[in-house]
Design brief:
By secondary structure, this protein is mainly beta. The protein is built from 9 helices and 60 strands. The strands form 13 sheets. Strands 48, 49, 50, 51, 52, 53, 54, 55, 56, 57, 58, 59 and 60 form a 13-stranded antiparallel β-sheet that branches. Strands 2, 3, 5, 8, 9, 10 and 12 form a 7-stranded antiparallel β-sheet that branches.
């Protein structure tokens, strides 16, 4: 190459590298704000009311101004007269290169609460925008100074001048906020450009794309044929299939392209296969003027009624397993981030959810992107809690919502408002902008062929699940406080998976909305019982219902035959996935002993398991454990099976105990092997000693009344006395909103006949001392066996019949003395009679907390400490309480007892719905044959299914457990 030619080539390369932006054919985007809560940009700011009013300062954009110390916190259900109004003024300067002068520049707002007016260099950018959750833009090309500093000013009113906007968005059962809470950016395109694309890609591989073109003024009347070319790409940018094109007069402003792809990889929540489509606008010479890309998926949605009703995706009936989600973070309000949106979808998938309803407004774009990528069905909702937009603003906002979201394959339905917030004049608007013609639903209503009844009782679920109209309640169970979310779900789901018309349902709600109050020294405010409606906490802490939902909604169900063996039963509850696409592993686990420290287990042996043949959706089959040949198996307490989905995500782990686990019920005496001496008696008490342990029994009641070791007292006393609660005269709870005082959670139970001690005797049995108490009344007998090493075994019997909330035996113990507990049982969370699913057999180590689900603790450094410590526990083999008096260990000698650990508290005031206020024995440490079911904010427990009914006692009951006070003896 000659020097002259080299210089020419070099000069050409430099020219191209520094060419004006106008040569670029993709849209150029420059953010004036951050992308979310984690990378905001400071703008000048002034507000006229509330915190830090009437002075210029700076504020992070995007943000809700309340969370940055401005304005007034309000809750939508506040009955304020007059309603406080805050106006904020924003300023931001920016400079654009001279090269942008040949481009068209749009100023884009992703979301502003609630009325917004923008000015650029002192001139109006366009008409006021109203509606807080919708994207809007202005063409500001003629207002800009290229190569110089520009001034953007935005005036924002949190209260809209349109009363219907306030009714639809700001008078709901949730916190209100103000400000520019989603990103702001400049989007530059050529003067002739593609404005938007709406894609309809079906399961048969056919694709149509409605392409809207924004032509420059001088080109709008031209009749010259331009063209638009499309190309399908995979997610690695590789072309798939041939390109496709269509010519059209630019004056039409739109063109429709069609294509067909053979054997496309289909999109479902189980197979979130995505494609890209690139669209290139070409002028009459064939030069590419502008190009854009859109992500989409091939899939077809059908709603069928009649003999085979339901929601169908790609011809396959699906079950929606979802929750209702607000866009929310405690420190930033409705201003989120890509990471929060990603993590929320991942958390839903971890819970084995496959669907989410956007309540009660459209979400961030990045949340829908994550639902596309990770695989979650979406109900995208126009705002409207119990009130609706008027026709004028409603038409505008439907258009904005659908235009922005139309290409997301995750969206199955458009929701026209919520619970009466439906403007029926808008129902047909959605189809104007959606070539897919997605179904429009009215949440809470049966409308246009879908039944979306809210909070149906169990009997209604049975009826509707077996009807002829597709049934999927858009609010099914209410997770306020500790009820609802997982409680009752097992009963509901057992009906739904068998019902021909059922297509699942949605739990209210995904998260608690406890907000940081910058106006109250940054306390975290749950708004009484209004905001804590979530399955997870505000920082996404897993509440007890999380674990229950995860198990009930597992798409793979593995059960172990009673006879054991290496072949398990498997039911496939996927909609589109063969069970043989999942992977399975097994472990033999040896749990830690009571005398060890910490939690968990040791894996003794592990391996893989394989599905036998094919188990398609809805079918059952066998899972074969691939175990080595061995003459002697390693010592182990349990078999664990873990299922992973085709993407490698864990679905669930099941743990079943083996017979060797009964070793924990064997008393290890150790130490002193001398015979326990006879008890000393006075007229009132009987005192027995074993080594440095001293026990006192009342000769009036037959109960243990004092315990000490080496002179140090333990306060586990006055038991094991019978603790029973009959159903209250009026069933607990009257439905939604009914509340009961925290000081009197339930009506006093009908008293039982008293049990009267008839005899208290003692005798030697080998080296042990046996003390026998006999009673007249419901309690039949208590047999105490004091072992030489200091263990006290207790066997008891009582007789009871009829319905009860709970029954068993218990001891008094001061709550203030408890520091922590360890237990081998189903954990990590407490249970109720209708929320027994979700626990996993393991050794759990829990530090004491006074957590009330949904309500922040007094310790603001750890305001949400989950799981709750206090409550009923299931499957306990052994449990230890670490107390200020020393260690107390209990071995539970049978599988049918629940253990009560202390008594949960309730927040002050009458703010807990009565159906959620549970009866607990006053004893604080009890061994129970029956525990109560919990209701929901919407329904009493008895209306949520068989598991919600009071337990029915049916005669004689026996229990057995052993206690040790102090550090355990070594074997």
């Amino acid at each position: 190459m000659s020097r002259t030619l080299f210089r020419f080539v070099l000069a050409l390369c430099l020219l191209l590298a520094h060419a004006p932006v106008a040569f670029a054919v993709e849209t150029q985007t420059v953010y004036l704000s951050g992308h979310g809560k984690d990378d905001p940009v400071q703008w000048d700011f002034f507000c006229n009311n509330g915190q830090n009013a009437d002075k210029w300062s700076t504020i992070a954009v995007p943000s809700n101004w309340e969370l940055h110390g401005y304005g007034v916190y309000t809750y939508g259900r506040d009955n304020l007269r007059p309603w406080p109004k805050v106006q904020g003024q924003y300023k931001r300067t920016f400079t654009l290169p001279v090269d942008w002068s040949s481009l068209k520049v749009n100023l884009v707002f992703e979301g502003v609460m609630t009325d917004a007016q923008a000015r650029v260099n002192g001139q109006s950018a366009g008409p006021m925008h109203q509606g807080g959750y919708y994207q809007f833009k202005y063409d500001i090309t003629k207002l800009l100074k290229f190569g110089q500093e520009n001034l953007l000013e935005v005036t924002v009113d949190d209260e809209s001048a349109n009363a219907s906007v306030n009714g639809a968005e700001r008078r709901g059962d949730y916190w209100n906020y103000g400000g520019i809470f989603r990103p702001v950016y400049l989007a530059a395109t050529p003067m002739d450009s593609i404005d938007r694309v709406a894609i309809n890609a079906k399961a048969d591989g056919s694709l149509t794309a409605d392409v809207a073109v924004d032509a420059a003024a001088q080109d709008q009347n031209g009749t010259t044929a331009w063209s638009c070319e499309g190309q399908i790409l995979d997610m690695e940018d590789k072309p798939v299939g041939a390109s496709f094109a269509q010519t059209f007069p630019l004056s039409d402003g739109k063109v429709q392209l069609t294509a067909k792809l053979d054997r496309p990889r289909l999109w479902t929540a189980e197979t979130p296969n995505l494609y890209q489509a690139e669209f290139r606008l070409k002028d009459q010479t064939g030069a590419v003027i502008h190009s854009i890309r859109k992500t989409f998926g091939f899939r077809t949605i059908e709603i069928r009624s009649g003999d085979a009703p339901g929601v169908f995706v790609n011809g396959q009936h699906i079950m929606l397993k979802g929750s209702d989600r607000h866009s929310f973070w405690p420190d930033s309000g409705r201003c989120l981030s890509d990471q929060v949106n990603h993590d929320d979808v991942a958390l839903m998938k971890e819970m084995n959810m496959n669907a989410v309803r956007m309540s009660h407004y459209p979400p961030d774009q990045s949340f829908l992107d994550e639902c596309d990528r990770q695989g979650v069905y979406v109900l995208d909702e126009l705002a409207g809690w119990h009130a609706k937009y008027d026709d004028t603003i409603g038409h505008t906002l439907v258009e904005a919502m659908v235009k922005r979201d139309v290409n997301h394959p995750c969206i199955l339905f458009w929701d026209n408002g919520n619970e009466g917030g439906w403007n029926v004049n808008l129902d047909d608007d959605f189809a104007k902008w959606d070539p897919q013609g997605r179904k429009v639903i009215h949440p809470q209503q049966t409308f246009r062929g879908t039944d979306n009844t809210h909070y149906p009782q169990y009997n209604a679920v049975v009826t509707k699940s077996n009807g002829t109209v597709p049934f999927f309640p858009t609010e099914m169970l209410h997770a306020n406080y500790d009820g609802g979310g997982g409680a009752g779900l097992d009963d509901y789901w057992n009906v739904m998976v068998k019902g021909r018309a059922s297509s699942g349902g949605f739990i209210w709600a995904f998260l608690d909305e406890d907000v940081v109050r910058t106006d109250e020294n940054r306390i975290i405010d749950s708004r009484g019982n209004e905001a804590p409606d979530g399955i997870v906490g505000p920082y996404r802490e897993k509440e007890a219902s999380f674990y229950s939902i995860r198990q009930v909604w597992s798409p793979i169900v593995v059960t172990r035959p009673a006879e054991g063996g290496d072949t398990l039963n498997l039911e496939n509850r996927y909609n589109c996935t063969d069970a043989n696409q999942c992977t399975f592993t097994w472990e033999w686990r040896l749990f830690k002993n009571p005398g060890d420290a910490g939690a968990g287990y040791v894996v003794q042996l592990k391996g893989n398991a394989a599905v036998e043949g094919s188990i398609p959706p809805g079918a059952s089959g066998k899972l074969q454990l691939q175990m080595p040949d061995m003459t002697k198996t390693p010592a182990h307490d349990a078999l664990a099976i873990t299922a992973n989905d085709p993407a490698g995500r864990e679905i669930l782990t099941w743990v079943w105990s083996d017979s060797q686990i009964d070793r924990y019920r064997t008393i290890v005496d150790g130490g002193n092997s001398a015979q326990v001496a006879p008890a000393a008696e006075t007229p009132d008490v009987l005192t027995a000693n074993a080594g440095d342990l001293s026990l006192t029994f009342s000769k009036t009641t037959g109960l243990l009344t004092a315990v000490s070791r080496a002179g140090k007292s333990f306060s586990l006393i006055n038991g094991p006395r019978l603790v029973v609660a009959l159903p209250t005269p009026v069933p607990r709870g009257r439905g939604r909103g009914a509340a009961a005082p925290a000081t009197a959670p339930v009506a006093p139970p009908t008293p039982l006949a008293e049990s009267t001690l008839t005899s208290l005797t003692q005798k030697a049995d080998g080296n042990d001392l046996v003390i026998s108490a006999a009673f007249a009344g419901p309690m039949s007998s208590i047999i105490y066996r004091l072992h030489t090493g200091g263990w006290l075994s207790i066997d008891y019997a009582y007789n009871l019949t009829g319905p009860h909330e709970y029954f068993g035996v218990g001891f008094d113990y001061p709550q203030a003395n408890v520091k922590s507990m360890r237990f081998l049982g189903d954990g990590p969370a407490p249970v109720y009679k209708n929320r027994l699913t979700g626990g996993m057999l393991d050794v759990w180590d829990r530090t004491y907390n006074a957590t009330i689900t949904g309500f922040p603790t007094a310790d603001q450094t750890k305001p949400f400490d989950y799981p709750e410590f206090k409550g009923y526990y299931a499957g306990i083999r052994w449990i230890q309480l670490q107390t200020s008096e020393g260690l107390i260990t209990a071995l539970v000698n049978q599988d049918d007892l629940f253990v009560q650990v202390l008594k949960p508290e309730y927040p002050g005031g009458n703010i807990i719905p009565a159906a959620l206020v549970m009866p607990f024995p006053a004893t604080n440490f009890s061994f129970l044959h029956a525990i109560p079911a919990i209701g929901t904010k919407a329904n009493r427990a008895t209306t949520t299914g068989p598991q919600g009914q009071p337990a029915v006692a049916n005669g004689d009951y026996r229990g057995s457990f052993s206690l040790f006070f102090g550090d355990l003896p070594r074997p």
